[in-house]
Design brief:
The structure holds two protein chains of two kinds.
Chain A lengths: L1 E5 L4 E6 L2 E9 L19 E9 L17 E4 L4 E5 L5 E3 H5 L3 H12 L17 E5 L14 E7 L2 H9 L12 E3 L1 H9 L8 E4 L7
Parallel strand pairs in A: 1-11, 9-10
Antiparallel strand pairs in A: 1-2, 2-3, 3-10, 4-8, 4-11, 5-6, 6-7, 8-9
Chain B lengths: L1 H20 L9 E3 L5 E3 L4 E7 L3 E9 L5 E9 L5 E5 L4 E7 L2 E6 L3 E6 L2 E8 L5 E5 L5 E5 L12 E5 L3 E4 L8 E3 L2 E5 L7 E6 L5 E6 L11
Antiparallel strand pairs in B: 1-2, 3-4, 4-5, 5-6, 7-8, 8-9, 9-10, 11-12, 12-13, 13-14, 15-16, 16-17, 17-18
Classes of the chains: A alpha+beta, B mainly beta.
């Protein structure tokens, strides 16, 4: 089984025995570098890779992604804060740790789910509940080793798409900063057909290539 | 009881000092305080902004229903009489401020209102979504800034706008609220290449100075 992404036509295909078995809509980065000052958008880099792993993702690069998706929350309205459960079992302050106050969380949740409330769990991580990572297997031994590094680009869903999916609304994919955006239901389908198994070959084609 | 009163008094001092220093509020409880330190009950469960005028406090926040829904609410407390007015809104209140000598507010949509005889009357002034009013004088001059989205997938980069004189400046900021000091608008940017502290001339919107930001007070003089 192989995965092939055609960024110019926003399509991801699963190939088995040289036949396209499944086809999904997926959005990568722009064809050329963007101008977002927070982090410039970049193309999803063409190449042949191997799928490495799938797990929740955190990064300090984006404030909402400093907290793992699904982390338990505790509403603290009197101090205009929301607490989140730390791995240690103690509670951290969203306001102090990521600089987002309670009213801003209510605002974001309302934008996504149409309800002015603090959710019970963190549903704001920019990479969704799970990110699927890949790497370039330079020495062709099917292991991440030597100077090989996981790509900073990955498959993931977005919080807005997760909200649309959970509300039963149409899921509208948008261009990424270089990652590959999937619909939540397609991500689940890809897992169920085994497309994200470690060591699966994954090819990113160039932007002008058609299927 | 005496100890309880003393605690309440200290809590009041803390909340009052916060109110005087900035427009961000931390409500200790559902109670607010008039000038005689008498506790006045409000139905606010949360407050995130306070505007302190000569005779009144205005608190923007939420009342929270039992099922967890937040209802945007504004409370006016008369410091002398202790009388409380409450208004409910369908949108989140982005900021409260004085404009043209009237208490005014802007909702998340950018629509602005002024308080006239206990009613909020819509202004012709339309601001950007989620605007914070950074500066306004007794004339027409008003400067507002809207933050960049904290979300990666939302490409709204934010910026600052001036009304009368009119100018706008696209600039991503998030955590540090912009501030006007000595005729300059100071903004701390949010950029992957490193945050900068930029000072804009409030009359022209042109950059007066800029420097790498390392956590100093936003209004610190440039070297």
């Amino acid at each position: 089984m192989e995965l092939h992404f055609y960024p110019g036509v926003h399509t991801l295909v699963v190939i088995k025995n040289k036949i396209i078995k499944y086809r999904f809509k997926a959005w990568g980065g722009p064809a050329s570098m963007g101008s977002d000052p927070r982090m410039a958008e970049e193309p999803t880099w063409p190449g042949t890779y191997l799928i490495h792993s799938a797990s929740p993702y955190r990064t300090p690069s984006w404030p909402m992604s400093k907290i793992t998706w699904g982390t338990q929350l505790r509403d603290m309205p009197k101090s205009n804060d929301v607490w989140y459960l730390l791995v240690s079992g103690k509670w951290g302050s969203v306001k102090n740790d990521i600089g987002i106050s309670r009213n801003n969380l209510v605002r974001l949740y309302h934008k996504m789910y149409g309800q002015m409330r603090v959710p019970k769990t963190w549903v704001f991580n920019d990479f969704g509940p799970i990110a699927i990572r890949w790497y370039k297997d330079e020495n062709k031994n099917k292991n991440l080793d030597g100077n090989e590094r996981l790509s900073g680009q990955m498959f993931h869903t977005t919080p807005d798409n997760e909200a649309e999916n959970s509300l039963g609304n149409p899921v509208v994919l948008i261009p990424s900063h270089g990652c590959i955006h999937l619909k939540p239901s397609d991500r689940d389908s890809l897992f169920s057909v085994g497309a994200f198994k470690p060591k699966t070959t994954f090819v990113v084609h160039s932007y002008h290539e058609k299927i | 009881m005496k100890k309880f009163k003393l605690i309440l008094f200290y809590l009041f001092l803390i909340s009052f000092s916060v109110a005087c220093q900035s427009t961000r509020a931390a409500l200790i409880s559902n109670d607010v305080f008039d000038s005689a330190d008498i506790v006045r009950k409000t139905n606010l469960d949360n407050a995130y902004l306070v505007l302190d005028t000569i005779d009144k406090h205005y608190y923007a926040g939420f009342t929270i229903s039992e099922d967890g829904f937040n209802h945007p609410t504004l409370v006016e407390l008369d410091k002398v009489t202790g009388k409380i007015y409450t208004w409910n809104f369908n949108e989140i209140i982005s900021d409260i401020f004085i404009f043209n000598n009237k208490v005014s507010l802007v909702l998340d949509s950018g629509n602005s209102f002024s308080l006239q005889e206990s009613a909020w009357v819509k202004n012709s002034l339309m601001l950007e979504e989620q605007s914070r009013v950074i500066f306004s004088n007794s004339k027409e001059h008003l400067i507002s800034c809207s933050p960049a989205s904290p979300q990666k997938s939302d490409h709204d980069k934010g910026g600052c706008q001036s009304h009368s004189p009119n100018w706008q400046f696209s600039i991503p900021w998030l955590e540090v609220r912009p501030k006007v000091c000595g005729g300059l608008l100071y903004v701390v940017t949010w950029e992957s290449s490193g945050n900068r502290r930029i000072a804009l001339d409030i009359k022209s919107g042109n950059i007066a100075f800029e420097k790498a930001y390392s956590g100093e007070d936003i209004c610190t003089d440039f070297d």
